[in-house]
Write the structure tokens for this entry.
Amino acid sequence: MPPRHPQLARAFALSNAGQNAEAILIVNQLASQGEPEALYTLAEMKWRGGMVAQDPPQGRELYRRAGEAGHAQAAENHTNLLANGVAGPRDWVNALQRLRGEARRNPRRREALALIEKMRLTDNGDPASLPEGQPLSTSPQVTSFPHLLTATECAYLRQVAEPGYGPSTVRDAHRQLVRDPIRTSDGSTIHWLMEDPAIHALNRRFAAITGTSAEQGEALQILRYRPGQQYHRHFDYVPAADNQRDFTVLVYLNHDYKGGETCFVNTGLSVKGRKGDGMMFCNSLPTGEADKMAEHAGLPVTAGAKYLASRWIRARRWAP
């Protein structure tokens, strides 16, 4: 959408010319006047950092203000953040009320609402029930959850992820996404602004099977493995991390491909779920050390394309 205000267009031109200080001054002036696109632009700057210091709580507040001023995308971002409680208080009931209003004019929001209405949820958005886990291994601890997601939920995750595929990434010690050196798949990260109430409800389901809270999870990743692509043997455990990746949750979003098994290389356990099946495994021991038996690999796909939802879950809150 083109800027609504000519001065904002001038700010963008100044920024493109490297005159960021002048550009930021204009954006701040317009935002102070309540100009919707300027409020949204400033929200993006505060949320992501770079030209200004990163400040997610302030970014969230600016999304709220921009939405109230009439910026549709800002309003949806605020709804998502209310649902997932990132960078501010969580208000599931208010988020659903807002989503119902957004669904009247936005087909994608209508899909999210329809998905939620098919889920069996508590008043707080948690799953009212879970499929029974089936232990596959005790060392490492591996449990499968048949039918963790419905076919419609799998299709929705793939649809949301589709525009965002790029080389798979991993977070470094500074929480920044960098190219994964051992994973050759393509990945699409459903980051916190994209995490609509339906996807947040799924993330709460993933948390529930591990006995953790949704706030401990990293952003959900959707992985696509085409023929020849794989994830070489590795640990999800992060050495020296002060907030460890204790659990990994994987959900198979399709099964019409060949190869691609998840293999625990030190035990020989090999898993290949059907669409909607989930698997949880523990990466660390009760002592906090890495479980050496949890080394695993995603074997090469030999035909078709494998789609997998992946969520790493930390020992403590990870979301800002």
